[in-house]
Specification:
It contains eleven helices and eleven strands. It is α+β, with helices and mostly antiparallel strands. The chain has one domain. A four-stranded mixed β-sheet has the order 2-1-4-5. Strands 6-7-3-8 form a four-stranded antiparallel β-sheet, with helices on both faces. Strands 9-10-11 form a three-stranded antiparallel β-sheet. It holds the Pfam family RVT_1. Keywords: Nucleotidyltransferase, RNA-directed DNA polymerase, Transferase. GO terms for molecular function: RNA-directed DNA polymerase activity. It is an enzyme of class 2 (transferase).
Length: 319
């Protein structure tokens, strides 16, 4: 927003002293609203902070991430160290191949980053282990950073955390961590009366409890629930929708949220289409993944643009 690079900031100011003074009574400089085009023709709003605010956010991320990581669920894969999209796809495929879970609950949170409830998020930050009230007050101030629109208007947000902020991905995971563990405790991490040495014994004990067998895969705000039976999938769809609304103050997209029988239909996840297809003489169902149509179109467009650049300037060192 201030059009100053990190190099210019270091040259023209004493970075350590400048940041130290800012933190004594922190007020964010504001964020520049930029609309980035999406593959479906719509736009994604980004909030770009000033270089000073980026540095402060990175400092906070480096301190708060290890605290939060201890409490995050094992099958949350987005914006976390040593976890990537391919790990989420691998876990999804393992559940289809080995556990034979073929009913998929696809849930899309409507405008997730723009609708995170500030009051709820601050409570979640404290609960996850961020106890220093000075830190909490600075996070509150960051959430209220003025948004500068192209037309000159300035907006003070009462909800949401701007995409484009360095701290926003961590805050989004803190927000949805409550959902992760709530779903997980329906089955996967439900505490049985006794501790069993084998998974088979644990599984039998869980079945006796008359619970809903469900497994979570989440990458940022893109998440799936895999179930063995349609009835379980329908129950999880309904109660998850209520949990998001009542506990996290978030709505789902009715158009994009659905239950998919992977034996008959595909489900899309992280740029891939996924379906449970028959393979081999016994006809065992296994996960088949391929790039979804919009991802193929996007890659083809980028490839064509790169080829044009190479033709104009055939210098292999640039590529």
């Amino acid at each position: 927003m201030d059009n100053i690079s990190i190099e210019e900031f270091i040259k023209t100011q004493n970075p350590y002293q400048t940041i130290l003074e800012r933190l004594k009574d922190f007020t964010p400089n504001g964020v520049k609203r930029v609309d980035i085009p999406k593959s479906d023709g719509k736009t994604r709003p980004l909030g770009i902070p000033t270089i000073e605010d980026k540095i402060i956010q990175m400092m906070f991320k480096n301190i708060l991430e290890p605290i939060s990581e201890k409490k995050f669920h094992n099958h949350s894969y987005g914006f976390r160290p040593n976890r990537r999209a391919e790990h989420a796809i691998a876990w999804n495929n393992r559940l289809i191949n080995q556990s034979k879970l073929h009913f998929c609950v696809d849930i899309d949170i409507k405008g997730f980053f723009d609708n995170i409830n500030h009051t709820k998020l601050i409570k979640q930050c404290i609960k996850i282990g961020i106890k220093d009230m000075k830190v909490i007050s600075i996070i509150k101030a960051m959430l209220k950073a003025p948004i500068h629109h192209k037309n000159g208007e300035i907006e003070i947000p009462n909800k949401g955390t701007p995409q484009g902020g360095i701290l926003s991905p961590l805050l989004s995971n803190i927000c949805l961590n409550e959902l992760d563990w709530w779903i997980s405790n329906q089955w996967q991490t439900f505490k049985t009366r006794h501790t069993y040495s084998s998974r088979n014994h644990t599984y039998r004990a869980l079945k006796k409890e008359n619970l809903t067998e469900v497994y979570l895969i989440r990458y940022a705000d893109d998440f799936k629930l895999l179930c063995r039976y349609r009835g379980n999938a329908e129950r999880m769809f309904n109660i998850t929708k209520l949990f998001l609304k009542n506990r996290l103050k978030l709505e789902i997209s009715k158009k994009k949220s659905k239950i998919v029988n992977l034996r008959k239909q595909k489900s899309e996840f992280l740029g891939f289409a996924i379906k449970a297809v028959r393979k081999g003489k016994k006809g065992k169902r296994v996960a088949h993944t391929w790039m979804k149509d919009s991802a193929i179109k996007s890659c083809t467009t980028k490839l064509k643009e790169t080829i044009k650049k190479i033709k104009r300037k055939p210098n292999i060192k640039k590529y």
